[in-house]
Amino acid sequence: MTPVIDDLSLDGPAPLQQQLYRQLSQRILQQRYLPGRQLPSSRQLAADLGVSRNTVNAVYDQLKAEGFLRSQAGKGIFVHEDIEPHRLAFERGATSRPVGAGPGMLPSLPRPVGPFRRGDDDANLPFNPGLPDLDAFPIRSWNRLLHHQESRTQLLGYSDLQGYPPLRKAIAEYVRVSRGVRCHHDQVIVTQGAQQGLALIGDVFLRPGDRVLSEDPGYRGARYALGRQGHTLVPVPLRREVLDIDALGDIGPARLLYCTPTHQYPMGGILDISQRMALVQWAQQNQTWIIEDDYDSEFHFCNKPFAAIQGLFDQAPVLYVGSFSKTLLPALRVGYLVVPEPLVDHFVWAKRISGGESPLLSQAVIAEFIDSGQFTRHLRRMRQLYRDKWQYFQARVSETLAGQVTPVAESAGMHQVLEGSFNDGEVSRKLRQRGYGSAPLSDHFIGTARRQGLVMGFASASEREIDGCIAALAQLLPAG
Ligand SMILES: Cc1ncc(COP(=O)(O)O)c(C=O)c1O
């Protein structure tokens, strides 16, 4: 008897071949067509479905190559007997379920911590901390460099895992001159933003049972990266808005200590030279490595930024982290690490495992942007622009919100903390509904939040947006 198939219909928008392949393979996986079942010849199926015989032959060939079907000379085409029903049991009734494992197979994974959302539509709202002024970016000059670089075939293949050599040279020169970092370009590792740099440090350094010390309040991205394998994060409190070095004695040693010594995030204090010396001394005595996150030192208004700890002392146990997210654009996803020479191979290996090379074209454009002097000019312009915005923002805050919030002066750079006694999570959420980003200060604490306030990223806001946001805050905050 000629085998018949009458439950197929090719009326979807996808190409016929794709529809037929999908329907046949699914019916086999769902055991609607059992192993050993004979299928119609390609001539008959083509006639039944009103498609060309070539279409059916192509699908049959594909299914044979994948082991769904087999053909037997002189007899016809069959569902392969090697597809054992018990192997397919989990696919039964799977049509309505999204692709993926059934609930019984899901391991008990730790939940992502923090205010984590998929597909964050709000990521570029004005006042979101960390966001530069995207409109002020010199996009025309950038595109010219991009156009120039994208025609180079050398940039289309694989590249140096450690980072594009001209970019590593440009970074080494920049951090030496402007941040006092002691390094050779062989010590520079290009990363996908500071965030990947922090994750790589965790991968290279942390072993089961290790402790990580972190400023409290502090940068959440560092906590997520360094605590993700279940390592204990130990909060180190601040004193006068900087890491309290004296508290370290009681807290005891750890493998790593994360800090932002040149502009504490988010409170803004700067470790002075004697505190820097005490920190390095403590780290050396306790065999602890300092992670120095130098995320926004270019934008200081009160004083010239202090030189990086990394360069102050020979042999200081410091891993230096930098990023172009603030000085250029977050979307580039390019940052860098400067690590001691003996550790470079470990980092390059860790990078290879977690993502491999950084996008070569972006690296080449950044290198040219720096080498041509445009980076320095851009930084100069942005410094002035952010200073003007800061002054405008400060003036509006003191005119309108006096008594409702206390601005933390040191924090100014690209953001400013407005402290107060209010439910900061609630106010931040309501501000967001009105189109203004901000982060609740309380979210930056590891344990119990001891202070409330809003971290306001004014760098991304126009004067009109500053006015609008201050007016919204005046309504949302409790009267002073
Ligand atoms: C303290 C701190 N470090 C680093 C970064 C940069 O992160 P990334 O380079 O991953 O964008 C930020 C960005 O907001 C930050 O606030």
From TrEMBL:
It comes from the Bacteria. InterPro entries: Aminotransferase_I/II_large, HTH_trans_reg/aminotransferase, PyrdxlP-dep_Trfase, PyrdxlP-dep_Trfase_major, Tscrpt_reg_HTH_GntR, WH-like_DNA-bd_sf, WH_DNA-bd_sf. Keywords: Aminotransferase, DNA-binding, Pyridoxal phosphate, Transcription, Transcription regulation, Transferase. Residues 14-82 form the HTH gntR-type domain. GO terms for molecular function: DNA binding; DNA-binding transcription factor activity; pyridoxal phosphate binding; transaminase activity. SMART domains: HTH_GNTR. Coiled coil: none annotated. In the C-terminal section; belongs to the class-I pyridoxal-phosphate-dependent aminotransferase family. This is GntR family transcriptional regulator / MocR family aminotransferase. It comes from Marinobacter mobilis.
